[in-house]
Design a protein that fits this description.
By secondary structure, the chain is mostly beta strands. It has a single domain, classed as YVTN repeat-like/Quinoprotein amine dehydrogenase (Methylamine Dehydrogenase, Chain H). Helix content is 4%, strand content 47%. It has three helices and 35 strands. The protein has a six-stranded antiparallel beta sheet with strand order 1-4-11-10-9-8, with no helix packed on it. A five-stranded mixed beta sheet has the order 12-13-14-15-19, with no helix packed on it. A four-stranded antiparallel beta sheet has the order 5-35-34-33, with no helix packed on it. A hairpin with an 8-residue loop joins strand 13 and strand 14. It is globular.
Length: 463
């Protein structure tokens, strides 16, 4: 049973964008050595050490720079480092639970075209106590181009405490604003990045590439990180089967990548700590290929590897503790995800599996026996094609469920003590702006909204 909650109007806060920032001598030296295609390069002004960007003709590049044989540099069009923006919280008084839009980060552009925000991964570094959001970008159509964006987020962890203190005096209380720093944006001229995941000091990207060296477009790219950022001088690029890679997880048994939908499957790669730098075909390294029709997303528990599949939707389960090659998977049929070349998602908590199933909405399964415990239908908006408001992804945070509803925006549902689901808030970002992924961080919510880039909102709970 899913009672329909009320919809809440939202106020939008403004933010300022600062494009000139101080960089240290080492950063200045590193940036000054970079050379990019498309006639653009980063220039460091000696008198101020400010990083900024000016157009240069291709003739201005020296032969030495043109001949730099770096795996990423040959493909990165632009690198923006340390762009910063700040915002102030909206002070309008409201009541109840609602999503308050705080800031927008515009999407990177390639050849004058905005790229589409496709996925989010949030990583908290315990050593440095830093939280970063990693955003992937892709394009629609035949052209392949994408990007990654690294956003440093501070004060989000304090938001729960601030909310509690705000209950005493809602009108006069001024919350400490979350601090957002767009630390890095890398734009790739030949690769759609559909999904990404950070594990330790590595960033895993999956998608499709037009690189002529690749036998098929599906690609896994592994970037080593330094202090959470991409040094962008080298990477491992793995040529995988099928048209596109859709999801990746890194486990002690190896790196697992879902590829599909034609000739789809899950590829496991060995020796994840010693993969060669540069281009490698997956058959030249230790691997295992497990065929599946249209796998779309991966998740795992301490005992199992799971995938949600589309077209003929199912939950695919492999036992991690037994021989992966010899142990047959468990296939659990589910309804939904019938649209071809569409998104689906899987997320696992201590007791539940949350599935975003496109036209099948959201389903909540018991992790122990895979029984369906809850269902949230896809959002329906009068006058909008239902294919544009399907459930692209779902994410959970304690007793809250967040749906990514395409052009329908996003909804927040509360799991009641009775087990019922109650909608408590929703948000839309406008026609043509599709919510493809959503993640919670403290009381803040981060959305990948396609052509709308990244949106950051605050979940406000007022009594």
């Amino acid at each position: 049973m899913v009672p329909v909650g009320k919809y809440v109007l939202l106020a939008i806060s403004a933010f300022s964008l600062i494009i000139f920032v101080w960089v240290d001598d080492r950063e200045a030296k590193r940036l000054s050595e970079l050379s990019f295609g498309e006639g653009s390069e980063v220039v460091i002004e000696d008198y101020s050490l400010l990083a900024h960007y000016i157009e240069k003709s291709k003739k201005s590049s020296t032969p030495e720079k043109r001949d730099i044989d770096r795996e990423i540099l040959k493909r990165v069009v632009n690198v923006y480092t340390n762009s910063i923006f700040e915002k102030t919280l909206n002070s309008l008084h409201r009541s109840g639970t609602y999503l308050e839009l705080l800031a927008t980060i515009s999407p990177p552009r390639y050849k004058g075209m905005a790229l589409q925000a496709s996925d989010i991964d949030i990583y908290h570094d315990q050593m440095s106590n830093n939280t970063r959001a990693y955003i992937s970008f892709n394009t629609q159509g035949e052209m392949m181009a994408g990007a990654i964006q690294v956003i440093k987020i501070t004060n989000a962890k304090d938001s729960h405490r601030e909310e509690k203190s705000s209950k005493k005096n809602q009108k006069n209380f001024k919350s400490k604003p979350v601090e957002l720093e767009v630390e890095q944006t890398l734009v790739f001229k030949d690769t759609d990045i559909h999904s990404l995941r950070r594990e330790g000091q590595s960033l895993f990207l999956v998608g499709a590439t037009s690189d002529p060296k690749f036998k098929t477009p599906s690609v896994l790219e592994i970037l080593s990180l330094h202090k959470g950022l991409v040094p962008h001088d080298q990477s491992s690029r793995i040529d995988l089967p099928s048209f596109a890679a859709t999801s990746v997880v890194s486990l002690k048994e190896g790196i697992f990548v879902s590829v599909g939908d034609r000739e789809g499957g899950v590829v496991r790669l060995d020796n994840k700590k010693s993969l060669p730098i540069g281009y490698t075909h997956f058959e030249s390294i230790g691997h295992e290929y497990m065929p599946i029709e249209d796998p779309r997303d991966l998740a795992y528990t301490k005992d199992e590897l799971l995938s949600v599949t589309g077209t003929q939707a199912s939950l695919w389960i492999k036992n991690r503790k037994k021989n992966l090659r010899g142990e047959p998977p468990l296939i659990h049929s589910i309804e939904g995800a019938t649209l071809k070349e569409a998104k689906s998602s899987i997320e696992v908590s201590k007791y539940y599996i949350y599935l975003g199933l496109g036209d099948g909405g959201t389903k909540i399964l018991d992790l122990e026996n895979y029984d369906v415990l809850g269902f949230i239908p896809p959002k329906v908006i009068s006058g909008i094609d239902s294919a544009l408001t399907v459930t692209n992804a779902v994410s959970a945070d304690d007793d809250e469920i967040y749906t990514a509803d395409g052009e329908g925006g996003s909804r927040v549902f509360q799991i009641e003590k009775s087990g019922d689901l109650r909608q408590v808030a929703s948000i839309r970002f406008g026609q043509g702006l599709s919510v493809n992924s959503v993640k919670k961080l403290g009381s803040y919510v981060i959305f990948a909204t396609g052509l709308g880039g990244v949106k950051i909102a605050r979940l406000v709970k007022e009594r």
